[in-house]
Amino acid sequence: MATIGPTQVNASARIRSAAPLLALAALAACCALSRARAERLAPTALETGFDIPAFPAEVVRPFSFGLRSFVSDLMFLQAIQVHGGRGTKMVTAHEGARDDRAMNRLLTYATDLDPQFAGAYRFAGNAMPRQTLDGKLTNVLQAEALLAKGARECPDDWHIPFTLGFIESYFLARFEAAGRNFAAAARLPGAPKYVGLLATRTLTQGGDLAFAEQLATAMAEQATEESSQREWEERLLDLRMERQLREIEGAAARYAARTGQQAPSVAALVKAGELSDVPREPHGGRYLLEGGEARSTAKERLRIRGRRGALATLEVQ
Question: What is the rounded CA–CA span in Å between residue 163 and residue 145?
Fold first, then answer.
């Protein structure tokens, strides 16, 4: 049997130690070749200066020899440069499409290589969505997809589901989904207390009162400060008021369908048998009915005043 001498052992060790550098050099060469080819084919394209490696992330990951975070950082830094280049020019959706696509590709690749790259998800949520001069919204759905991945991969970072909830509520008017993401963020360490209050408001807008009340009850029970406990108890009263207002409006809709006329008051609904009695307003006020819509004299309803029509101007890349 042949024996392995010290020289061979040292040579083998040197090869193993050089493997990461060789892999990085190969990856850099592939990137350079790919970029040079792109520049020859489309020399005027803005996006050719910033692009992902020629190999898919799932191919690069097992051969990165522990350097995948380094390669992921390179993609992230390129995305920051793309964002910095477009920050001072609010161009049209068509003119900015190349930069938008480049940012999405770079950040997707970075998080595919390093799925726990929390900073990349946070950056995507804040930097990718953009309103252009022609009134279009770009990179919103792409940012939503990245943040949804981030919420799965980084379950301890409250910023990610919070930003996802903001995008879903403000840009997409998906209030129930947004409320659930706000609720997930509110339960995580470090989340400000307003996040839970925002979650209940958004859930109410989305129609999920049961989940909003469940969250408010749990937060009130877990509150360690007296002021925080009072806030959650007040929110439970708000939710009770909202439930009663919806019951009144449901009764008013039945009254209008049956009689062909709008009910003049809450008392008229009771007299007509549509309500069993006049609900007691939990804040000490009273309920009014105007044109089929109910309101309280003591407190405004929980509503989200945002861009509910934003989906109509969404530019899908």
Answer: 12
Q: Identify the sign of the CA torsion 142, 143, 148, 152.
A: positive
Tell me the per-residue pLDDT of 110-150, one tens digit each, with 9 for 90 and over. 998 889 999 999 999 999 998 888 888 889 999 999 999 99
Q: Residue 127's closest CA among 68, 78, 175?
A: 78
Q: Residue 279 CB: number of other CB atoms within 10 A?
A: 19
Q: Rounded CA gap, 116 and 114, in Å?
A: 6
Whole-number Å distance between alpha carbons of 260 and 27: 73
83 pLDDT tier (thresholds 50, 70, 90): confident
pTM: 0.75
Specify whether the CB–CB gap between 168 and 181 falls below 8 A.
yes
The order of strands in the sheet holding 137-138 is 130-131, 137-138, 314-315
Per-residue pLDDT tens digits for 290-300: 989 999 999 99
pLDDT reported for residue 261? 93
Strands 287-290 and 137-138: unpaired
Count the Cβ atoms, other than its own, within 10 Å of residue 80: 15
Element (H, E) at 254: helix 226-259
Q: Which amino acid is at 220?
A: A
What CA–CA distance (Å, rounded) separates 79 from 105?
9
Q: Are strands 287-290 and 130-131 parallel, antiparallel or unpaired?
A: unpaired
Q: What does 72-126 look like in DSSP terms, one character per residue? A: HHHHHHHHHHHHHHHTT----TTTTHHHHHHHHHHHHHHHHH-TT-HHHHHHHHH
